[in-house]
Please model this.
Amino acid sequence: MQETACMEPSECLTHNESHGVIASPLPISVHPRVMEALRSKRPVLALESTVITHGLPWPANLELAEELEAIAHGQGVEPATIAVVAGRITIGLSAEEKRHLAQAGTACWKLSSYDLPVALARKAWGSTTVAGTLFCAQRAGIRVFATGGIGGVHRGYAQLPDVSHDLMALARYDLVTVSAGAKAILDLPATWEQLETQGVLTLGWRCKEFPAFYYGNSGILLPYTVEHASEIAEIYKTRTGGILVVNPVPGTAEIPRAEIEPCIIEACARAEAQGIRGKAVTPFLLHALKDITWGRSVETNCALLRHNVEVGAQIAISIARAAL
Ligand code: PSU
Ligand code: MN
Model:
């Protein structure tokens, strides 16, 4: 499939009045509210769905999915949660579709960008990872995306180089992605180096260090700190690829390094002992951490997602304003 850059919604969307279907070889449906916002150049914020199916437990996952959309709406931004519904890329899910995915959880496919053609051909239901969501959002002409934590370089790289495709997708699709850094279950210094190798411009949102998901200060110094969404909109105008905005978890929800690190070591040991590999690694570690921390890691995960949606919405507003 030929990759086409999609800069202006009007260039890439052909509105079908009743269904919001994009004229494209891809089976892709856009929710009427999202379609309307894109056509009138109002701010839209993409949200991923793997965090719903594979990252958080039922029913907290559904509650959070609804809450994140409400936060965006509250700021005057149209949320677009993205997933694959019965073989169609779906930009903006109905309440029933969200419930179906949340309840199915890990029974759904976990889709990176490269998995999409198989899921579409087989009419599957699946959630999209950061990479999968970036691909779909760009096709729909969405410019800003909020997630929890990006995938990255897993620990034990020297034995097995498990590097998430998220890093390549962040470079390739020219959206602004807001995340709380990379999960501390990863090798953070190696993840940071790979962001540089791939050419992902990384901006600290009012912070000086690359955040470690569960806590703010990883010790990895960022080259740029940005204080205002308007400056991100200005930087976005001359982007050379994707931009990653890192936003530390709010202090009240933080789990300090000294507390979470032994839990991560325990979770990684369980994954190793059970021979967990590939796509199953990240969901397994998140689930193990939930058990080991008695649910505290889930609270932190939810708090940072809310915060990222707030910041993502501000950026979406500034970019929409600058593009008018
Ligand atoms: N952040 C979370 N929970 C998650 C993920 C991120 O708090 O479940 C998901 C994202 O969708 C991310 C994916 O893209 O994990 C990375 O998976 P992998 O390491 O297999 O590429
Ligand atoms: Mn992997």
About this structure: The chain is about 45% helix and 15% strand.
